[in-house]
Amino acid sequence: VQLVESGGGLVQPGGSLRLSCAVSGFDQSYYAITWFRQSPGKAREGVSCVANSDGSTRYVESVEGRFTISVDKTKKTVDLQMVSLREDDTAVYYCAAAVWDRPCPFDEVVMEHWGTGTLVTVSS
Length: 124
Known about the structure:
There is one protein chain. The protein is an all-beta fold. It is built from no helices and eleven strands. It has strands spanning about 1-5, 10, 15-25, 30-40, 45-50, 55-60, 65-70, 75-80, 90-100, 115, 120. The strands form two sheets. Strands 2, 4, 5, 6, 9, 10 and 11 form a seven-stranded mixed β-sheet that branches. The chain has a four-stranded antiparallel β-sheet with strand order 1-3-8-7, with no helix packed on it. A hairpin with a 5-residue loop joins strand 5 (about 45-50) and strand 6 (about 55-60).
């Protein structure tokens, strides 16, 4: 199983970025993909997730209305569209996968496979 994040970079406050998580070797009937992020000196937090068992998506309150998660089954990617970025969105963003048949999780303990992360820096 391999998860590879891309799309990070430097953006000004108010700008947009689209992160992509390419998933390979993970052909499960039921799965969840979660985007996490970790800022310097802070614990890693779940940002957004999607589960295919019920189509559920979740967002941490701080990104509600600004981030959108989507799945491209053809490309086998899970994207995170981020708009109206703020300086406190600066972090390394990771995607993670789990075999999962419930509403998608923000608990990193249950995630089985992880990418290496992509850095998002929001700064003027």
